[in-house]
Specification:
By secondary structure, this protein is α/β, with parallel strands linked by helices. The protein contains 11 helices and 14 strands. The structure holds NADP nicotinamide-adenine-dinucleotide phosphate.
Length: 304
């Protein structure tokens, strides 16, 4: 496995996203987690809301049945979304959400806690108080954010003493606004409009990890681009790179994300071990500059 040095230590560049594991039985989930661990994939991404809590509960049960030493895993969860209702970064909500996650995951601590989506009504001092309490009590080791732009991060940093080591953001060849706003600077094109405050450059400047969620999707959960005829050229380019390096198209997509010089972790979404190991092969592959641009253009982006 390839690793990236981060503010939360040395982490595998492939993170196992657990949003979709609720469809597995406990035995299947244990086999999935065990298979991941055997292949060096020991970083697991959760959220309090995945499956309404069922994903964390199932994972906690499965890990208990495996008897894995806790320190051999990196378990991340997120909080701040109250589904269908609101976002909530109040001190009470952050702390009670973490306590719920710990209970479901059957663990004493989270390696990392991310604030899931920016709460418009957040008070940075309250977030800081929650982080301090969670850090002091040993319930959370590292902190980060998700779906935030640079000024939201700066706002939290204005009060919180903890380093924010990661921003988890949607990123794939077919969802690459973070790239196109940097290639189409000062143009009248739609893709040149920056929708994220230049977060990719910010993360590079501040040594933050970009955790790329939905590495195989396009739109907001519209679909998977692998084998989708709407993305014929992208599939051809991924297949071409895949053939050269002996990897699957999904792995070529991961290799494309990891070829970017920012600190990147690819957060996979599969609950199928064979698919996970296919993608993980992308971490061992360094595609060329030419191949990177070929895949970018094949996804429909322009190079002015
Ligand atoms: N921070 C946020 O706001 C946010 C939002 C969404 C997700 N996330 C995190 O990001 C993770 C990944 O998100 P995602 O589920 O959208 O990821 P994804 O990897 O883009 O999509 C995963 C889906 O693709 C399917 N798939 C189809 N063909 C595949 C192939 N050849 N290889 C692998 N998968 C294939 C998988 O099905 P199979 O299971 O059958 O393989 C699964 O349903 C989540 O688990 C979660 O941890 C974070």
């Amino acid at each position: 496995m390839r690793y990236v040095e981060t503010g939360a230590g040395r982490l595998p560049v492939i993170a196992v996203g657990c949003m979709g594991i609720a469809r597995l039985s406990k035995v299947e989930c244990a086999a999935f987690v065990d298979g991941a661990m055997q292949n060096g994939l020991n970083f697991f991404d959760h959220a309090d809301i995945y499956g309404g809590g069922a994903c964390e509960s199932l994972f906690g049960e499965a890990v208990r049945s495996l008897n894995v030493a806790r320190e051999h895993m990196f378990i991340q969860s997120k909080c701040g979304i109250v589904p269908g209702k609101m976002y909530d970064f109040s001190k009470e909500h952050i702390i009670s959400s973490v306590e719920g996650s710990l209970k479901r995951l059957k663990t004493e601590y989270l390696d990392s806690l991310l604030l899931h989506r920016p709460d418009v009504l957040m008070q940075p001092e309250e977030v800081a108080e929650a982080f301090d309490a969670l850090e002091r009590s040993g319930k959370v080791r590292y902190f980060g954010v998700s779906n935030m732009h640079p000024y939201q991060i700066e706002l939290i940093k204005s009060a919180a003493g903890q380093r924010l080591f990661a921003d988890q953001l949607q990123f794939s060849p077919a969802h690459a606004g973070m790239i196109s706003c940097g290639t189409e600077v000062n143009m009248q094109t739609e893709a040149g409009v920056c929708r994220d405050g230049y977060i990719l450059d910010y993360c590079r400047l501040h040594g933050m990890v970009v955790q790329a969620w939905s590495p195989l999707r396009y739109g907001f959960f519209e679909g998977i681009f692998i084998d989708d005829p709407k993305f014929e050229k992208l599939n051809e380019a991924l297949a071409k790179a895949g053939k050269k390096y002996g990897i699957a198209k999904s792995a070529a997509a991961a290799a494309w994300l990891l070829r970017h010089p920012a600190k990147i972790q690819v957060v996979t979404g599969t609950a199928n071990l064979a698919h996970l190991l296919e993608i993980a092969a992308g971490a061992e592959t360094e595609i060329t500059r030419e191949e990177w641009y070929e895949i970018y253009k094949a996804a429909g982006h322009i190079l002015p």
